[in-house]
Amino acid sequence: MLTIDEAFRKFKSRLELNDKEQKNASARQQEVRDYLDTKFKIDRSFLTGSYARWTKTKPLKDVDIFFVLKSAEDHYRTKAPAVVLTDFHDALVEKYGNKATRQNRSINVDFGVKADVNDNTDYRVISVDVVPAFDKGSDFEIPDDELGRWIMTNPQTHADKAVAAHQAYSSEWKGLARMVKYWNNNPKHGEKPIKPSFLIEVMALQCLHGGWGGSFDREMQAFFATLADRIFDEWPDPAGLGPPISNGMDAARKSRARDLLRAAEREATLAIDHVRRGRTGEALRAWRELFGPKFPLS
Ligand SMILES: Nc1ncnc2c1ncn2[C@@H]1O[C@H](COP(=O)(O)OP(=O)(O)OP(=O)(O)O)[C@@H](O)[C@H]1O
Ligand SMILES: [Mg+2]
User: Fold this and answer.
1) Which of 64, 149, 160 to mutate to test the pocket of ligand 1 (most atoms within 8 A of CB)?
2) CB-based contacts of 30, cutoff 8 Å, min separation 6
3) Is 296 part of a structural domain of the chain?
4) Looking at CB atoms within 10 Å, which of 160, 192, 210, 285 has the fewest?
5) Ligand closest in space to the Cα of 139
6) Which ligand is nearest to the CA of 131?
7) How remote is the CA of residue 155 from the centroid of ligand 1, in Å?
8) How many domains does the chain have?
């Protein structure tokens, strides 16, 4: 039988990006870029967000692509963010129909790929988030429809912080972040406990500290506990540029998240107890129940 450590390592690797997925993501980026080039003056585009940082979970969806506009499009910057989002949405609807949906800071393009019961997509990306962006020094300005203003962001700073945290944690930090994001996506919760899921990563910058202790199950138990303790804190943008990442949830939603995080902590405690009593099979089933189908039983 699989040991708990082997199971977590297998789980971790199942949540890693592989070559086929990266090829598909690049092909989708190129496809959308080729089309948008016929509509806007685009300087460059790049895959970003958790995808580029290696903290995206599975199935692969909402992969962020920044489309950095040339100065010929600067007229948008003096207008409400809704204007550029509407124009991008209208353009993408022409090609993708109702598979293009407008969001707060981006347009989501769904490629009609469905995940199977094991959360596999045959290595294909389900959807991308098209983000119109402008250079602002070494930072970027992106539209925020809810705030009704342009916000600043710097994906490179977020990436650098993730790399530093990963290195300080014996190269296990990104794997743990992907696992909790996978837990967060588990459909058994209905709505995601933590929104946006970027908040998990931002909290992990502080909640995973003291160094890697050597066992996945104890790391997870402690991580869930600290997330529950600190979900009501304010969590600013780690790059110090954009609005607080914790603004995505009201008090009721935070309270629900805290309850679900505490429940996950209790399930982790029970799973650890199973191992102590020699019941590895029970422990594997408990972790599988907690995370979902990508956690292996064998
Ligand atoms: N409030 C914010 N201020 C500044 N930058 C932000 C803010 N929220 C998100 N970002 C940046 O935009 C990127 C994309 O946001 P998104 O919500 O898709 O998060 P993500 O890290 O890609 O997580 P997910 O795995 O859920 O897609 C983030 O990775 C981060 O670099
Ligand atoms: Mg994203």
Assistant:
1) 64
2) none
3) no
4) 210
5) 1
6) 1
7) 8
8) 2
